[in-house]
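Kindly go through the following sequence and its backbone structure tokens. Advise at your convenience whether the structure tokens fit the sequence:

___
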Amino acid sequence: MPLHPQAKAFLDQLAAAGGPPLHAMPVAEARKALGGLFTPEHKEAIHAVEDRTILGPAGHRVPVRMYKPSSQSGLPVLVFLHGGGW
């Protein structure tokens, strides 16, 4: 299966940067390198952060983290599902 064009473009940019490939770096160094790539341009204020669990497949508890921008109710929701190790 070919890579998605956006994923390929990202990997091509990493290769063009001239550093070692991520898989050849120690974990801490690779995390640091990737951390600099994903710095948000605009940070929203956070009113509260709450760790919870929700019921997942086959009755398993799945940890979730809720970020609340204010104490106001009825706000829209954004769901972000992390891809893990891809």
